[in-house]
Write a structure and sequence with these properties.
Alpha-Beta Plaits, four-stranded antiparallel β-sheet, elongated, 2 domains, alpha+beta, Aminopeptidase, 291 residues
């Protein structure tokens, strides 16, 4: 997901700004956090005083993008990442010999019906104008080819931007389990984890960062309207605490590498983006402090 690049260009930013520290009208903190994918590292750092002593007034962060070529930056207002939620549905039936299914309660059958039910959430129960994803990513049942499964586990993720949609999805998941297991005489365990919140870009800070970035990549290199990123990001805890902007850095070069998505073992980037992003972050920090 570009963590090596993120670390490298922040180190580059620290190197540049340390040489300009006599010209800075304020302080700059450089945040290297643990447990971004876990997540929770940002929240822990805030609880341990990251934004205090000296007090932080504004913040910014940059993330590599697989959707844009090198030289392009996505810097837009409003929500730029989604609510990243995860669920685990455990359906309990009664195992029995596969030759006599009437003597058991088929948990796999219940799981298949829950799966099919969940597929209707986005298409039939959510507003078409709401960006929402519900994906069942893992399903396990049974231990033998000759026995009816006594348990079925479904795990997956929900991505949304509004708290009402998050709650609606949670209720729909549990109600689906309840209805199907009651129909067949089974039972269920329901687990839902809301990990964090959308990253919200502050319009005023974001506009200043756009202006600074344009001095590095040109006005044509700054993209202010783009699709929302359905992934989650625990930088949201910083963005909820202080005015902030979170920008995406285009790093693709199809002439060098075939295009690959983030979280793919074959993902590669044009390393020219490292110095470029360090320059963008440095210019932005300089202008935010000195304007």
């Amino acid at each position: 997901c570009g963590h090596d690049a993120h670390t490298t260009w922040l180190l580059g930013t620290a190197m540049i700004l340390s040489r300009l520290k006599e010209d800075l009208c304020g302080n700059v903190k450089f945040m290297f956090q643990p447990a971004e994918e876990a997540p929770g590292g940002a929240d822990e750092m805030i609880h341990e005083g990251l934004l205090e002593n000296p007090k932080v007034d504004m913040a910014m962060a940059a993330h590599v993008s697989a959707d844009m070529p090198v030289g392009k930056l996505i810097i837009q207002d409003g929500p730029v990442t989604a609510n990243p939620d995860f669920f685990k549905l455990t359906l309990h039936g009664k195992g029995t010999h596969g030759a006599y299914p009437q003597n058991g309660i088929d948990a796999l059958n219940m799981g298949v019906q829950v799966y099919n039910q969940l597929s209707s959430f986005v298409s039939r129960l959510s507003d078409a104008c709401d960006e929402v994803v519900l994906s069942v990513c893992k399903m396990e049942a049974g231990t033998s080819r000759g026995a009816v499964a006594g348990e079925c586990v479904l795990e997956g993720t929900v991505r949304s931007f509004r708290p009402e949609i998050r709650q609606q999805a949670k209720e729909f998941l549990e109600n689906s389990c309840k209805a199907i297991t009651q129909l067949y005489g089974g039972s269920y365990d329901f687990y839902y984890e809301a990990l964090s919140f959308p990253v919200m870009n502050d319009p005023a800070v974001t506009q200043k960062v756009r202006e600074a970035a344009a001095k590095i990549v040109g006005e044509d290199g700054v993209v202010s309207q783009f699709k929302k990123f359905m992934g989650g990001e625990d930088y949201c805890f910083v963005a909820r605490a202080v005015p902030s902007t979170f920008l995406y850095v285009g790093a693709m070069n199809d002439d060098l590498f075939p295009p690959m998505p983030l979280h793919n073992s074959h993902f590669q980037m044009d390393e020219r983006v490292l110095a470029q992003t360090a320059a963008v972050l440095s210019q932005s920090a300089f202008q935010l402090l000195n304007d």
